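To: structure subgroup
Subject: Chain for Friday's discussion

All,

I'm putting the inputs and outputs inline so they're searchable in the archive.
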Amino acid sequence: MILESFAAAAGVLGARYLAHRAILRGLRAPRVPHALQAADLGLAPDRLHEVRIAGARGQALVAWLVLPHSEPAQATAAPVPAVLVMHGWGGNAAMMAPVVPPLHAAGFAVLLIDARCHGRSDGEAFTSMPRFAEDIAAGLAWLRRQPGIDGRRLALLGHSVGAAAALLHASHHHDVRAVVSLSCFAHPQEVMRRLMAEKRVPYPVLGWYVLRHVQRVIGTRFDAIAPLHTITRVRCPVLLVHGLQDRTVPFGDARRLQAACTGARLLPVAGDHDLREALMPQADKLIDFLTRAFDDRRAPPAAARPYFPSPIAP
């Protein structure tokens, strides 16, 4: 009887382990290698610097710092504002290259980061939206230490999961002047439900377990990190840019986010989920939004406070 009970328990644990590995494998982001060069951005070679940033848990992030035309390290030059750019799930820094020219032309420094498990940054067993937010925090901390960068005038620009992570960071660390959100979803559970429906995973049977397990793995509830909720705690200006033809995240998600945060501006554009090119005709509006946010006549952002995810109850 004891041996039978032990065997049954071992079978359950084995099944849970196999399910855990299968879920992580199924949700793993594709890693797309790249070699970002100054020529890809239309810049002189001395305007782009590849750097390594210490991330969470000892993992290294690879990033690229784009300097404006006026060298900020010169003693006579005034410190310049900077925009940290975070790609989406399965993306990398090079994929965000189209946003750089207008930011560079406006005189902003730009930091493009490869999130963990993406591009050329270190990998881990898994990544998640909260870990994207940790990588954003590491990038901002690095920027504040750079000579010629005005640590009081930093902004975030993120795409999809990167946008959700930017809102998550800004909801807990009130240390940025603005957030530009590209193609952000309203709630991660809805994204997961759509993904499972595409893969024909029956929700009442397996889907519920998958959602519960993923929350346990990432260490927080979807509700706690959902942009629909985090945006209500963001104190800085938010610009929501969303494609009218987005087939990955419905345009209605952007309207819901704007409704949740009356101070957020919504900029509809003619495009699908990938807005790198569709955003360019709207570049003047993007630059105007950031320029106003960087205006020194605005009150400086409040001090950061630590981010503690909402734990999952046993």
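Points worth raising on Friday:
Residues 1-20, 300-314 have pLDDT under 50 and may be disordered.
The chain has ten helices and eight strands.

D.
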